[in-house]
Amino acid sequence: MVTAAPCVAYLVGRFTARLEYSRAAPLLYRDATFSTKKSNKNKLSSRKSISTIAALPFELSPPPIDHDFLDTVAAEGARVSEEGIIETFENDDEALDALDNGVVVMDLSHFGRIRVSGDDRIQFLHNQTTANFECLSEGQGCDTVFVTPTARTIDIAYAWIMKKAVILMVSPETCGNITEMLNKYIFFADKVEIQDITKQTCLFALAGPKSAQVMANLNLMDLVGQPYGTNRHYSVNGMPLTVGVGNIISEEGFSLLISLASARSVWKALLSEGAIPLGSNAWEKLRITQGRPAPEKELTNEFNVLEAGLWNSISLNKGCYKGQETISRLITYDGVKQRLWGIHLSAPAEPGCPITVNGKKVGKLTSYTSGRKESDHFALGYIKRQAAAVGDTVIVGENIIGTVVDVPFLSRQSPPIKNSSP
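and the corresponding structure tokens:
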């Protein structure tokens, strides 16, 4: 087992995995208990394995105020917006390089987190979103999509199934509306409770080829190699921590949902293991180049869930759910008329610009970002199915040349097969 590197700057702490459950834990972690008893043998335990735990560089005292983490990163040179979003660590190029060759850590605490609890929570989410929640068990997870009754896409949610709750991670723009919408669909007899826990928690994401090594150094090796969405509970100096496989941009890497009090300690531990911090500006560049659709850009009332290419989040084998009739009809009659693509551009372009082929409008640009070089320009856009494919040339706006390309997030999506396992 790989042990964590010593760090003299901090007092010694522990990650202790506990998969038993208790009512005594805080609301978010009501389905988990965390042992704070000291053991001479320093064990990390789970249902399936027991392994030796190593010392980690966590401070034992909680921060003096809830937002001490943001104050800490701001004092270290990060630029933090008035909304509490870390825009940049003034290292965007270095962070994007580390994403390809090392490991980065992103603060995604401005993304929404919704807790769905109550005895009917699984059936409720099963009926309200596109994924098959009834086939999932405690400790598993998935992507699911919130859609309108006509299958127009609202947002993608990354879901963790816990013993007494489901945690949904959604985009910042949609959290309030989704919370309100879910509450609206709770009927009188439904045993379901919806709570926005965004301000009570922090969310970090690890990404890059060396993220598994960081997990091993933090004694979380039991999650490495597990299926996307697998999640388990731990503690940091007695404070709750949930770690999941994957993050809201890819199936690789990991997500860490933590209490406000332990955010600074966890962040510093990740940095001590070599993770490079990545701000929201670089994150947006990453989102576009990876091809992840976003609300108010690719996910709007103008486009449906199949046009957005979110096949891995859709089940055709479960019972009735919102948008199912439209989705089934589109698949049955091959009614998907356009799809989302990546586009390499010869110059900058504004979202909303028309995409044309041979002088005829065939689509619309939805997102744009500059590359790491001044000559690099990249975008996402919807293009009619018969108009262009990978490698084809299109015109964006008046005279910007574009080349259609696959993007990683969308290329991993595969159309569901009827009557197959969910």
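(Above: one complete record from the training split.) The chain has two domains: 1-294, 295-411.
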